[in-house]
Design a protein that fits this description.
By secondary structure, the protein is α/β, with parallel strands linked by helices. It has two domains: 1-114, Acetylglutamate kinase-like (Carbamate kinase); 116-200, 3-Layer(aba) Sandwich (Carbamate kinase), CATH 3.40.1160. Helix content is 36%, strand content 18%. The protein has helices at residues 19-24, 29-53, 75-83, 101-111, 146-152, 159-167, 182-187, and strands spanning 8-10, 58-62, 71-72, 87-91, 117-121, 127-128, 140-141, 143-145, 172-176, 194-197. Strands 1-4-2-3 form a four-stranded parallel beta sheet, sandwiched between helices. Helix 4 runs parallel beside helix 6 (159-167) and helix 5 packs antiparallel against helix 6. The two termini are 29 Å apart.
Length: 200
């Protein structure tokens, strides 16, 4: 934000609950997904509190209305907050079951006309041809097209999210969050992680 960049964040809830895993354990998939959406709200509120303690003005917007806790998602309100220098944190996914937070990120990026998606991963620093945790010889890609991601079945985002980015020409950079300063490096255009974009 202090670099003059408008920042919107989509948070996941996997540290608390994963809808697909809950469904596999016998919970109805729709119910499990709603539980996952609520988990993202918990994370959004925690992130908001941490950012505001650092003096960063934020707003949490949820796809499921809970006005006592956060604003409902309204695109124009979100863009106004961004224009005023506030960080907007999107929670509760798309508000619909069967959609991941990857899809939420692609959808919200398209709606707010984002220039790029920075897809921060825990310990993985880019997109690989196989799981680097299981294959020590896994090769990291520096650049990919959306079509290559889809055709190779690479685990960047789910297919719906990747297609949405491709259809709206929203590039993304996949990088490791564990390395301090990587978000800043990505914003400055440094060569980190894997760039995914169009044919050009």
């Amino acid at each position: 934000v202090e670099m003059g960049v408008q920042v919107a964040i989509v948070v996941g809830g996997g540290n608390i609950w994963r809808g697909v895993a809950g469904s596999a354990s016998g919970i109805d998939r729709t119910t499990a997904d709603y539980m996952g959406m609520l988990a993202t709200v918990l994370n959004a509120l925690a992130l908001q509190d941490a950012l505001e303690k650092l003096g960063v003005p934020t707003r949490v917007q949820t796809a499921i209305e809970m006005r006592e806790v956060a604003e409902p998602y309204i695109r124009r309100r979100a863009t106004t907050h961004l224009e005023r220098g506030r960080v907007v944190i999107f929670a509760a996914g798309t508000g619909n079951p069967y959609f991941t937070t990857d899809t939420t990120a692609a959808l919200r990026a398209a709606e707010i006309d984002a220039d790029i998606i920075l897809l921060a991963k825990g310990t993985v620093n880019g997109v690989y041809d196989s799981d680097p945790k299981e294959n020590p010889n896994a090769k990291m890609f520096k650049r990919l097209t959306y079509l290559e991601v889809l055709q190779r079945g690479l685990k960047v985002m789910d297919a719906t999210a990747t297609s949405l980015c491709m259809d709206n020409d929203i590039p993304l950079i996949v990088f490791g969050l564990a390395t301090h300063g990587n978000i800043r490096r990505a914003l400055l255009g440094e060569d980190i992680g894997t760039y995914v974009g169009g044919e050009n």
